[in-house]
């Protein structure tokens, strides 16, 4: 490997050949501002906010794409550089629909921060502003093109990470707009509502549909009994919204905050994650012993399900019929729990706190009404919950830790790992092994299916029977894995999660969410697992009681009615 | 979307697509051939091309909307070409164009829904002395002001 020597702001640096000036500067401890750049995903040199001066070169260079050269002399902070950066940002501001105080991204907006960082105090130009309608057609994602700065990060994520290609630049020059073909509404196209675009948008041009006012109204209504569930991945991400390090485990504070917001019961989606393992594990054992169809593919991730319905409907028979844990929760809350607690399910409102935008779509699917009502009424992302906590003036960081309510609040380590890629597989293996063999697992940790590798494979020996499993996260990797299956590769069990890293990297998580932060959240998830007294779903006493008192056994008629579902082929256009 | 008027040409189109099946990088070439064949690129044609080459409809439409050459509607009865060559530009052709876009309710590169007018931008028409210039079905109209340009359109209603 050859290296290159150069100086940046008089600091000598030695880096590998082919490194960008931006990366080399980072190594030298020099910060260069960027905007359109997204490491490994969007490296197109479009915004020119990252320009630097290179001795001997006539033009300033975009450091995010320009490679280093031997003996290069770079200046990142010359008057010319500062002026050019300012000019580029001023031009973006000159035609921007500037409504910071009421904008969803106020105080977490890269355009705003850049303007501050570059010391822009006035915008010298008045540009022509675009006037595109806001697209709020879907239950999950809103497009507001007039705030778009055309950085194309969303396009790159949708194409390269998710392989969906729902949106792209349309037109050219001033008239360019990032949109679906024919400027169709997101509702009418094969967008899976994963929200990955909302995570990377630097401004308020793509964001989640906010349901906080509906939830505030339910909380204020004395007639309503409002129940909340929290997804596994939210407990390791909510803290970031309040300045805590990414990945810190704040389960207890989150429960306390939800009580203070006025929820009548604070329950845990982890409970129904355990329930999912009972149902899906049994489904797997049945398919495995009775001849298929295999591979069985997990169904917890609504973005993946919508993707499959659009692009791979031929896999419908392979996908588990289990509802996702969020939907199982709604169905159980409005039947079993309502009965037990003597509450009229018509007056019960079920709210979910999710790392996910696609869950907003999922809860409105017409199939998800098996309790006789819409099983889950509102889905709030982690970001929306943080907004409510702030609005209520709750001092999150200093809250005492509180416990979930019983019985839908009891859970295991197997449930919390649903939040990370590989977790559902690992949880299912822990249970399937013990149910099949009747023996205790020697070690609970299946390291092969953990971590950020795109596609993970493992062979698990269940008393002489070899079970081949695979795990994919992000839809781009899901596509690769499904193509392998179509080409004849044999697996018994596959886990697919729509978002990179699994739910901890979901489209409703705090911004920023990047690879480093994903890794920290995954660490938090496995730490939470290790700290749980019970780590296998079938050992959850409240799950055992639920079967005893209400459902009978896994895959019973009642289970089928409440906890299982079916899928629809949706077409690509 | 208006009904596709190109049934007779589907067979021909299928042949073009078949020759490039599964080759996303041939998109622009296929679009050229399809437009030469049909005259424009309606939605159904775009879907067929997307499907055949293995790209998304969004990508197809993105490319079409980038190049002025491509059009998604049949050409209007009257082709209005506004010159944006240097001479016409400095004499005010941008204002002419803007006014015509407003009047017709379409952007350059598009055609009106009633099929009457298509609007496009061209480079120097070789009549710089008469700038700003536009042509309607090849007939030149010079020394335009936004109002007179609109009056010219009226002659063709
Ligand atoms: S996107 Fe950023 S700069 Fe634009 S209005 Fe919102 S907060 Fe302000
Ligand atoms: S929500 Fe997902 S599929 Fe839809 S445009 Fe955004 S990234 Fe693409
Ligand atoms: S919508 Fe957001 S991410 Fe996409 S191009 Fe516009 S500013 Fe960038
Ligand atoms: S960050 Fe380098 S050009 Fe946008
Ligand atoms: S520039 Fe318009 S005719 Fe020459």
From TrEMBL, chain A:
Cofactor: [4Fe-4S] cluster
Signal peptide: none
PANTHER family, sorted: NITRATE, FORMATE, IRON DEHYDROGENASE
Organism: Moorella mulderi DSM 14980
GO molecular function: 2 iron, 2 sulfur cluster binding; 4 iron, 4 sulfur cluster binding; ferredoxin hydrogenase activity; hydrogen dehydrogenase (NADP+) activity; iron ion binding; NADH dehydrogenase (ubiquinone) activity
EC numbers on record: 1.12.1.3
SUPFAM superfamilies per record: 2Fe-2S ferredoxin-like (SSF54292), 4Fe-4S ferredoxins (SSF54862), Fe-only hydrogenase (SSF53920)
GO cellular component: membrane
Residue stretches making up the 2Fe-2S ferredoxin-type domain: 2-80
Protein's name according to its UniProt entry: NADP-reducing hydrogenase subunit HndC
Domain 4Fe-4S His(Cys)3-ligated-type as annotated: residue spans: 80-119
GO biological process assignments: ATP synthesis coupled electron transport
The keyword Repeat appears for this protein: yes
Alphabetically ordered keywords of this record: 2Fe-2S, 4Fe-4S, Iron, Iron-sulfur, Metal-binding, Oxidoreductase, Repeat
NCBIfam families (UniProt xref): FeFe_hydrog_A, FeFe_hydrog_A6
Domain (4Fe-4S ferredoxin-type) ranges: 139-169, 178-211
Keyword Membrane appears in the UniProt entry: no
Class of the enzyme per the UniProt entry, highest EC level: oxidoreductase
From TrEMBL, chain B:
MF annotations from Gene Ontology: 2 iron, 2 sulfur cluster binding; hydrogen dehydrogenase (NADP+) activity; metal ion binding
The record's free-text note on cofactor binding: Binds 1 [2Fe-2S] cluster.
Cofactor or coenzyme needed: [2Fe-2S] cluster
SUPFAM superfamilies xrefs: Thioredoxin-like
Transmembrane stretches, start-end: none
Keyword field contains Iron-sulfur: yes
EC supergroup of this enzyme: oxidoreductase
The EC number(s) this enzyme carries: 1.12.1.3
Domain of life: Bacteria
Keyword Disulfide bond listed: no
Keywords: 2Fe-2S, Iron, Iron-sulfur, Metal-binding, Oxidoreductase
Residues that hold [2Fe-2S] cluster according to the record: 83, 88, 124, 128
Similarity remark: Belongs to the complex I 24 kDa subunit family.
PANTHER family: NADH-QUINONE OXIDOREDUCTASE, E SUBUNIT, POTENTIAL NAD-REDUCING HYDROGENASE SUBUNIT
Protein name stated in the entry: NADP-reducing hydrogenase subunit HndA
